[in-house]
């Protein structure tokens, strides 16, 4: 009903909404519609209902109406007591939706109805945030008039002014500032509104903000200034304005990138000139020692390069990898920059740490003019990289014929090999560059030169399917039978060449095979795994090659070391013409490979119906099982519905594999409804279970295959049939969150309280995974909210453990016991505080909300576990600062220790949670409390390398010389983990230096 009402509101059809409200329960007006649902699709101005399997609508009826801006419908809903501050499941509320869309009349009406103008969503965003970002001036103005807080920040500490600046909405920016918005309010990343305006180039806004007192040198956490951003974006007018207002032209980011550096990256010549004229350091490098000149050369910005050098930029300044500006210019093919740099004294043979020269890079890119220029200026044509790759090698690799000819003419070594023994000829053969191959051989390249793994140039050419190269190599006495280390011959490589979507390459491959055979290639040469050329050709579907090889004497039943034949390979790939030919030539259709699989089994597993048909007609044993006792029918049932005809061939529909899984079991698991129907029509047992007692219905429910579940139940499947650990189909569907399956099974009599061998119910599983819709349905259908498993854990405990806020609230509202503890005396509140801190701040906030909610509902904050761990102990060990504060305020003892005498401070120090450590000490935590191993909080912090915690504890009276029971001190720990900064600090604070540390300290 909620879904229908929400759809009506979203459509904007007044009459439809009135009609729906006459026929639905009033209670659904403030409920969220949250599932895979219908939506209205407008085609030719006509609304049609579409069921979208991938779309989720999470609106309430009122938020839906506010999005569409239909005031008439909103009035109807409010007359029916719709809540103006109700959140939907995406945490949107009516005023936010209307403000975001700019529906002024709706905003005005909602505020007249006393909506909270400062209401926030889960990200702490107000309606003013959304209106400001989307540029709705009249809405912003009205919200301000009604008391909207202009400096209210979201969870990223961004104010509405931030949003307006980012969107470039000048009028809104002025409106907000005039109403008291803080122009220097920074986000969590310390980005100011001015920072955002500079980044996107809104000049008018920048000028206005600075005029209103914005700090032009306010930097982000990454130390990026507004000027840095303006330079990066190429906003010249803003750059000039900021400099005129006192912006620091040499302010660098944490990566040591200056504004000039950024301007050079973008090639913004006017900005570069402006910065240098105002004192920017032309040689200021980033942390990788990359200079502004380097970046300008990299981008090919000639005018910038010329200006920088004119202003005394270091022309040979290299980065940490010893890459020079010339190197980058050559890499990018910027000939004008290259010529200018060399004319100004750049070293043409300056190499990187990997010994790559400018010429090396120019050859990679195929920049002919640069190559010729560098060689004319004295570049070494045989200078190799650390892998011994020469400029010639790289030119051959790229197929740059003109460069290859030029380099050889200038003395390049044609047989110079890499550290892997790859010659220029090898790499040219791999690429299929015939002209280069010919030129290299004419100039003395060795046609039989092999790499370390014994690949010859001919093998590489065959592998790539390069006919002309192969023919030329053979004409020049390349060895046609030379094999590489796995005994793969050139002929084998040619037969394995992949079939291309265009016939020309396939014809090339056939030509190569014929050429090799005509020149003496051994057609029976097998690899180390006993694969023949016929095996390779069959696996690639090369029909003409298969015929040729059989005619030349290849054995059609020759198997590899895994007992797989050529027919196996062709059947698996579905090459019908190859299969047909091999069978005609006497291939054994019932040959089993090492796994006991026949060619037929391979064919049906991959869904090749025509191949399977043919093999059946030629005498294959359709009931032959593999080594896992899996029959072909099991394979067919697992795969696609294209195998229906194959299944019809198979006689034993109840034949099972080794784990006693029947074909019906497999088909149900995979969701192949047509196969399921066929199997049942042919007498398959609907309740036949596997060796783990898993029924077909169990398998279908586990995978959420609703249509299969429905069909099986209609055909007599037992909805309460459990597996070997007593898990029912409902149990599995609940765990996976398949709401439709859950509802159907319960409707058909599934026991909602059926537990597994661990005494966990379907509700336990749904709560643990956070499937709210499933939880609600199960509870509505009398699932026991306080049922406990064998460890005495309740559904509420599981929901708290997973951090599922909505589920927790629902369970408590339905009388779940908030103080029920498990066998170790751990309460739901304990589980919530123990919930791991996520990278997702939202989940962390959920955990805090859960803790607060449980306490409000009467949870005992002083409940300890059997090992005497308090809630504060657990929250401290996880670094949940807000929870720690809340628990201390609620009376938790900051010095309460567990049975190992470990305190909350000890655990916070162990994890390095500085803010928690600081707060606990301020609240009276004992800094020198020792555990049963005589370890203090300082000892643990030093052992784990948390210097800031170590410093704070020492400053607050921690004993730097307190030993543990093994006589090890914090100083010992610092030395052991090799933290010089910590060693230095501890010694400065009078830490003793034991004799056993003297050697280490001398090293430090």
TrEMBL record:
Domain of life (superkingdom): Eukaryota
SMART domains found in the cross-reference section: ANK (SM00248)
Alphabetical list of InterPro entries matching this protein: Ankyrin_rpt, Ankyrin_rpt-contain_sf
Please name the Pfam families in this protein's record.
Ank, Ank_2, Ank_4
User: Is Repeat included in the keywords of this UniProt record?
Assistant: yes
Q: What is this protein called?
A: Uncharacterized protein
Entry coiled-coil feature ranges: none
Q: Which organism's genome codes for this protein?
A: Mytilus galloprovincialis
Q: Which UniProt keywords apply?
A: ANK repeat, Repeat
What ranges cover the ANK repeats?
57-89, 90-122, 123-155, 156-188, 189-221, 222-254, 255-287, 288-320, 321-353, 354-386, 387-419, 420-452, 453-485, 529-561, 562-594, 595-627, 659-691, 692-724, 725-757, 758-790, 791-823, 867-899, 900-932, 933-965
């Amino acid at each position: 009903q909620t879904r229908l009402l929400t759809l009506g509101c979203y459509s904007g059809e007044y009459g439809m909404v009135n009609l729906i409200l006459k026929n639905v329960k009033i209670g659904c007006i403030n409920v969220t519609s949250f599932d895979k649902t219908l939506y209205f699709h407008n085609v030719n101005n006509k609304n049609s209902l579409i069921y979208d399997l991938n779309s989720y609508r999470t609106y309430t009826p009122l938020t839906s109406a506010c999005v569409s801006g239909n005031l008439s419908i909103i009035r109807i809903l409010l007359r029916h007591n719709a809540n103006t501050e109700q959140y939907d499941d995406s945490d949107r509320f009516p005023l936010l939706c209307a403000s975001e869309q700019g529906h002024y009349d709706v905003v005005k009406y909602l505020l007249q109805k006393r909506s909270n103008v400062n209401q926030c969503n889960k990200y702490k965003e107000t309606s003013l945030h959304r209106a400001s970002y989307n540029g709705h001036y009249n809405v912003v103005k009205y919200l301000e008039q009604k008391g909207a807080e202009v400096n209210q920040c979201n969870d990223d500490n961004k104010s509405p002014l931030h949003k307006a600046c980012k969107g470039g909405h000048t009028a809104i920016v002025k409106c907000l500032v005039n109403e008291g918005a803080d122009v220097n309010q920074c986000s969590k990343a310390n980005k100011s509104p001015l920072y955002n305006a500079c980044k996107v180039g809104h000049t008018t806004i920048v000028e206005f903000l600075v005029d209103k007192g914005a700090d032009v040198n306010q930097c982000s956490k990454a130390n990026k200034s507004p000027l840095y951003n303006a330079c990066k974006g190429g906003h010249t007018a803003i750059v000039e304005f900021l400099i005129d207002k006192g912006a620091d032209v040499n302010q660098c980011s944490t990566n040591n990138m200056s504004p000039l550096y950024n301007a050079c990256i973008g090639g913004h010549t006017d900005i570069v000139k402006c910065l240098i004229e105002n004192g920017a350091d032309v040689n200021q490098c980033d942390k990788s020692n990359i200079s502004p000149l380097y970046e300008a050369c990299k981008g090919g910005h000639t005018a910038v390069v010329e200006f920088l050098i004119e202003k005394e930029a270091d022309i040979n300044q290299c980065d940490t990898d010893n890459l020079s500006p010339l190197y980058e210019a050559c890499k990018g093919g910027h000939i004008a920059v290259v010529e200018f740099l060399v004319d100004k004294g750049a070293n043409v043979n300056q190499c990187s740490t990997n010994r790559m020269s400018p010429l090396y890079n120019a050859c990679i890119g195929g920049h002919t003019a640069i190559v010729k220029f560098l060689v004319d200026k004295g570049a070494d044509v045989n200078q190799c990289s650390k892998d011994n790759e020469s400029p010639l090698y790289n030119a051959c690799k790229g197929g740059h014929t003109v460069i290859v000819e030029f380099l050889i003419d200038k003395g390049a070594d044609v047989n110079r090999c890499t550290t892997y023994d790859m010659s220029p000829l090898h790499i040219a053969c791999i690429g299929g560059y015939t002209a280069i191959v010919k030129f290299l051989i004419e100039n003395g390249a060795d046609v039989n030169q092999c790499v370390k793994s014994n690949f010859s140039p001919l093998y590489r050419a065959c592998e790539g399917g390069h006919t002309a190269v192969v023919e030329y190599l053979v004409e020049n006495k390349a060895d046609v039978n030379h094999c590489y280390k796995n005994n793969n011959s050139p002929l084998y490589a040619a037969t394995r060449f992949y079939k291309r979507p265009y016939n020309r390459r396939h014809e090339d491959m056939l030509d190569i095979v014929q050429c090799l055979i005509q020149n003496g290639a051994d057609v029976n040469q097998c690899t180390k795994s006993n694969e023949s050329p016929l095996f390779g050709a069959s696996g690639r579907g090369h029909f003409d090659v298969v015929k040729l090889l059989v005619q030349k004497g290849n054995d059609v039943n020759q198997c590899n070391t895994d007992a797989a034949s050529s027919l196996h390979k062709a059947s698996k790939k579905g090459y019908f013409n190859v299969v047909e030919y091999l069978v005609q030539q006497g291939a054994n259709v019932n040959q089993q490979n090492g796994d006991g699989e026949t060619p037929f089994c391979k064919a049906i597993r991959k869904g090749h119906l025509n191949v399977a048909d043919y093999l059946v007609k030629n005498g294959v044993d359709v009931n032959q099982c593999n080594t896992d006792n899996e029959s072909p029918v099991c394979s067919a049932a697992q795969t696609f519905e294209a195998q229906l005809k194959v299944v019809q061939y198979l006689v034993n529909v109840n034949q099972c594999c080794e784990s006693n899984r029947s074909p019906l079991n497999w088909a149900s698991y995979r969701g192949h409804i047509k196969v399921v129907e066929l199997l049942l029509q042919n007498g398959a047992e609907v309740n036949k279970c596997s060796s783990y007692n898993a029924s077909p219905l169990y398998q279908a429910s586990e995978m959420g295959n609703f249509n299969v579940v429905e069909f099986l139940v209609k055909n007599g499947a037992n909805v309460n049939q459990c597996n070997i650990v007593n898990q029912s189909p409902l149990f599995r569907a609940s765990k996976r969150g398949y709401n439709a399956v859950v509802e159907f099974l319960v409707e058909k009599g599934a026991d909602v309280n059926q537990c597994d061998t661990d005494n966990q119910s379907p509700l336990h599983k749904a709560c643990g995974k956070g499937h709210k819709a499933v939880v609600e349905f199960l509870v509505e259908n009398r699932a026991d909210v306080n049922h406990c498993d064998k460890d005495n854990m309740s559904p509420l405990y599981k929901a708290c453990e997973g951090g599922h806020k909505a589920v927790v609230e629902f369970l408590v509202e339905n009388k779940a016991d908030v103080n029920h503890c498990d066998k170790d005396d751990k309460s739901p509140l304990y589980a919530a505080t123990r919930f791991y801190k996520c990278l997702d701040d939202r989940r962390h906030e959920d955990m805090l909300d859960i803790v607060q909610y449980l306490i409000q509902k009467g949870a005992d904050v002083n409940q300890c576990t059997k090992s005497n761990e308090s809630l504060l102990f657990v929250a401290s060990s996880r670094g949940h600062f807000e929870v720690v504060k809340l628990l201390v305020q609620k009376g938790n003892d900051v010095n309460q220790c567990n049975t190992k005498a470990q305190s909350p401070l000890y655990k916070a120090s162990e994890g390095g949670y500085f803010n928690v450590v600081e707060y606990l000490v301020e609240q009276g935590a004992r800094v020198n409390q020792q555990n049963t191993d005589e370890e203090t909080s300082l000892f643990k912090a030093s052992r784990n390398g948390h210097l800031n915690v170590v410093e704070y504890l020492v400053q607050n009276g921690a004993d730097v010389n307190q030993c543990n029971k093994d006589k090890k001190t914090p100083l010992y720990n610092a030395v052991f983990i090799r933290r010089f900064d910590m060693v230095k600090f501890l010694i400065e604070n009078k830490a003793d230096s034991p004799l056993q540390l003297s050697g280490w300290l001398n090293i430090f």
